Structures are given as structure tokens and as C-alpha cells.
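Appendix B. One record, verbatim.
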Amino acid sequence: MAKRYRVVLAEDHTILREGLKALLSSDDELVIAGEADNGKDAIKLVQSANPDIIIMDLSMPKIDGLEAIREIRKTNPSTKILVLTVHNNDEYIAATLKAGANGYVLKQASFDELLNSIRTVLSGKPYLSPAISETILSGYLQGKKSMEVRSAYDTLTARERETLKLIAEGAKNRDIADFMGISVKTAEKHRSNLMRKLDLHSVSAVTAYAAKKGLIGQ
């Protein structure tokens, strides 16, 4: 009987996670060892289930994907990590690879590509979606050139960082505008930009991020 590989799914969108579970369960070589809808639970699940591979999103509540990858790499070095995400930019790709992921697949991929990526990673080889720039891949994986890895926070402007701190402290757009001496429309733009760059979708998420960065109370 062929070996069956244990898979953990970490995805906060229930419909997508259930769809992945149904598709992967149809493959005789794969068995779902557990599911998590946030990064914190994903880390705990990997520690307890010790799967062969975890398929995970980068944008997850409680603990984001990058931090979860770093922790899993420390506690379960033999578990393969395959990222399945919508993010297709240099920053995310470089940071994810540096954190210790074995593969990077875009959510626009077909199911056949996903299966191929899983098998490739399980075989001990890296996998990245063909849609990702070939220059980025060759530069990082072959070590022919260095890639500057910037965190999402590093991409914020000074005004956006100030806005982030104010939002976390409970300030509304009018409060931010008055404090910074700008229009409400400009304050709204700063708010929108920083949430997009950090991939945060609520005030509570912004507050939690700011707290983790140690920005509150400064």
C-alpha cells in the first residue's frame, strides 16, 4: 500500500478550506490530519499532529502566516510548508521563502497545479507557481543575487505609521485629521493605504498589529 501523507490545512475562509479538504481527500496519497482557521491554532495543530505538510494562507487572524511559518520551522523542522495565497509581489515572496516555506502557490492555480506543488514539496524540492516572476525565483533560489526583504511595516510612509498608531489608540478619521493638521479625506486615504499594505481589514486587527509592534503607549 502506498504511503499516505498527513496534511494540515490552515485557512481562515471556511468555504475555501472546506473545498480544499474535499479536493485533497479525493487523492489516495493524502489524508487530512487537521484544520485551523488562524495562525495560532495552526502552530498548535502542527505541534500535536506532526503532519508531513501544512498548506497555509499568509493572511490569517491571531498570528499571521509569516510568523506561523517561522514558529513551525523551529518546532517541526521536518514538516513541509506550502503557502497558498493571493499575494503575488516581491515582498511577500521573499519574506515567505526567508521564513522557511518550501513552496509558494497562488490561489489562482488549478487543482492539478496544487497537487503537483504538494508532491514536489513532499519530495524535498521547492515549488513556486509559474505565474511568479522567473527573475525573482532564480535570484532567490539559486542565490545568484541577493533580495532585499522588507516587512510590510517597512513599506509604510511616516504619515501612515502615525495614522496606524492613532487608529490603534482609538482615534477616528476626524481626530486623526485634526491631530495631524490634514483633511479628513487625506486621513481616510492614509488609513486605507496602511490597511491595504498590512493586509488588515478591521480596526481590531490594526490595534492588535500595533500592539504586537509595541506602538501603543509610545
